[in-house]
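Entry:
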Amino acid sequence: MENNKISELSIFFPFWNEEKNIRAVVTDAIEVAKKVAKEWEILIIDDGSSDKTYEIGKELSREFRNVRFISHQPNRGYGAALRTGFENAKYKYIVFTDGDRQFDFSEVEKFIEKIKGTDIVIGYRKSRRDNAVRHILMWLLKIWDYMFFRFYFRDIDCGFKMFKKEAVASIMPLRSEGAMITTEILAKAKNKGLKIEQVEVNHYPRKFGNQTGANIPVVVRAVLESFILWFDIHNGRI
């Protein structure tokens, strides 16, 4: 098993009001990290939580040597949390999943199998366990991104992605603070000619906490950010 491990891995999770999920997410990831990487770290990115996520995150960073805690105050958005994770990850390979326990982090092995021969590996959900509104938004996002940025992937906003560190460096800086961060990542990667592979992952119903991706302010912010991104790309700014 030791010979099959990758040399080093940075793992990060964005959390916002996930007090009932954060400990299980991090401790499960620790066990997986020990199996798949020789050197590893876990970054807890607290995006201005108003529940006990902050306190539990701090506690975990004190409890486990390889766990770091970073907090935004106040809440800035999903994109900002991902940006902070990318900016602070130190190892050759970087992976993130959402902190809501809708993914099984042990499936990172599928990503590891592909990452050595590509730049970015993105997950697509075998069966998305979300409500009808989120399914509709997913299809609208696919159409939107094809119209404006000329790319198509099976599951653009799947919150399970892996990168080579140099691939991240080539698309930085990222500017989206909200949900349009995944479109920005993929649009810039396409412009840079980066190689992207896709892998199937399981998706599970959320047991604790509330989803925010279908909130009207989140959707409006994403639309505005997409127009800014299109303008910047169209005018050769990125």
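Residues 216-234 form the longest helix (19 residues).
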